Amino acid sequence: MKALLWAVLAATGLWTGYWWVGASSIESAVQSWFAENASHASTSGVEVHGIPNRFDLTVNDVVWSDTAQGITVKSPFAQVYAMTWKPWHVIAALPSGQEITLPDQKITVGSDSLRASLELHPSTALGLRETVVEAKALSLTSDLGWTVGVEDARFATLEDPTPANTHRLGVAIANITPAASVMQALASTDLPPKLAEIYLDAHATLSAPLDRFAGETHPQLLALHLTEARMIWGALKFTASGALTARSDGIAEGEIALRVEGWRRLPPVLVALGLVKPDIAPTVERMLEVIAAQSPDLDVINITLSCQDGRMSLGPLPLGPAPRLH
Q1: What's the Rg (C-alpha) of the chain?
Q2: Predicted pLDDT of residue 64
Q3: In whole angstroms, what separates CA 34 from the centre of its chain?
Q4: Are strands 147-160 and 98-101 parallel, antiparallel or unpaired?
Q5: Which of 89, 128, 131 is CA-nearest to residue 208?
Q6: Which end of the chain lies in a sparser environment, N or C, as judged by fewer CB atoms within 10 Å?
Q7: Predicted TM-score of the model (pTM)
Q8: Beta bridge partners of 223
Q9: Is the separation of the CB atoms in 127 and 209 below 8 Å?
């Protein structure tokens, strides 16, 4: 019995020692990073708690800035958690009340929950396996007077071992409330006050693994396979699917099939978002009418976005140079 007791005490002592070594290393590494990057990052303090089974890192009064771009991000705190027996899987949480200062405005980020999860492979390379970012009751409020709300948002990636260096990408955003000024501009349409859904399911193939050596290998996007993308806003519905690959110079090649239902509601939306000038909207509508006339259903547009020979076109309409994937 005494031998068992001593064994338990010894194991407890070793585990506690492991926690203290790990916690001290984490705290020292974070403090060193802020010291090395003092020109654009700061904090009022770093703490590690959670003994004996978790590493709970809290960084208080976090400020990050890019003076060249005129961008500053402030957060009251940031928290990162990891189980002591699984340090390659970390969970981060941010509070409501973050501030993002841009050259022309300041945006306050509110939320009921804003969390992220990062899981790596438990190997020396620490390759990326999965990421998840989730937000509940998210709001973006600008000092210019506009507010955008999102009821639920989720972004995720998951490693797909075949082919190599491929990750599945997913985006699901539900019940988006546009700015009041946008809805006022759309008052004459039958669009509801909320976008029901924005959804994406795709696979991205990279030139190198996303691991701790990424700073040396510089992974670049080689191919993007779009299984399904859709946006639903009342009777206005977008869907897309297709694939783009990168030439040796990084220029995109491939096709994306687009389908737009209820397209007559699109020109007012483009005007309300400031993407099209009001005097150009009738021309855009006539152009869309010509494209819709090629479909059996005049309320539906089926068209292909094509990237070939370094040029991009939407159906018969040339759009200019094709984009670069890397």
Answers
A1: 25
A2: 95
A3: 25
A4: unpaired
A5: 128
A6: N
A7: 0.88
A8: 205, 245
A9: yes
